[in-house]
Amino acid sequence: MLRNTVYGWGWPAMVLHWLAAAAILTMLGLGWWMTHEMLPRSPERLSAFAWHAALGYDLLVVTVLRLLWRLSGGVPALPENSGRWERIAAVGGHVLLYLFTFATALVGWALAGTMRVSLNKDLFGIPVLPIYINQDRAVHGLLETTHKYLAYTLAALVAVHVVGALRHHFVKRNNVLRRMLRPAAQPV
């Protein structure tokens, strides 16, 4: 199934979801590792920063594609027995996930323009134009701190999202999680 339906996600939505999930989790882990002195200052650390930035640029593209697909293809309905608070939490949670993914990536992109070494290529080696360039260390520090706290907030939102999906699967025993794992035209 290509398109989303009221019953489930199409395969493009699922692929984009899992690509974004893998990128976010990888970047959160790598970012934490790089910034908590687990990686001494070295060419390897610079390489890790470059890889983190490259993945961030590609995550931004995937997130834009996800949002465009979501807006053009609709969203499967929540189970009929979902309470009002669950519907509000689902919409609010997804809005916050998109908002913080974009904010974290954009601030990271600006932060890349304050590095002493250029971080201007994505994972495929495609050049990325900077959105901000400034060698002022105070600006670098501000952007770095902002990026870090946005990433921590994004990590918390991801955790809540995962707990919510697991709640749907194990407690409510509905298909909310399963329909992100396999396309379904309609319920059986």
- Give the CATH topology: Fumarate Reductase Cytochrome B subunit
Give the low-pLDDT segments.
none
Our count of helices gives 4
Quaternary state of the chains? single chain
Summarize model confidence as the mean pLDDT: 93
C-alpha Rg (nearest Å): 19 Å
- Estimated structural class: mainly alpha
Q: In angstroms, what separates the terminal alpha carbons?
A: 16 Å
CATH domain class name? Mainly Alpha
Number of DSSP E strands? 0
CATH architecture: Up-down Bundle
Number of domains: 1
Which strand-content bin applies to the residues?
under 5%
Query: How helix-rich are the residues, as a percent range?
Result: 55-70%
Query: What sequence of helices (H) and strands (E) makes up the elements?
Result: HHHH
Rough outline: elongated
* Main sheet summary: none
Write the layout of secondary structure elements.
Blueprint: H1 11-35, H2 43-73, H3 84-112, H4 137-171
Structure characteristics:
188 residues, mainly alpha, Fumarate Reductase Cytochrome B subunit, elongated
Give your account of this protein's structure.
The longest helix is centred in the last third of the chain and has 35 residues, at 137-171. The mean pLDDT is 93. This protein has one domain: Fumarate Reductase Cytochrome B subunit (Up-down Bundle), CATH 1.20.950. By secondary structure, the chain is mainly alpha-helical. The protein contains four helices and no strands. α2 (43-73) crosses α3 and α3 (84-112) runs antiparallel to α4.
Short description:
20% of the residues are buried.
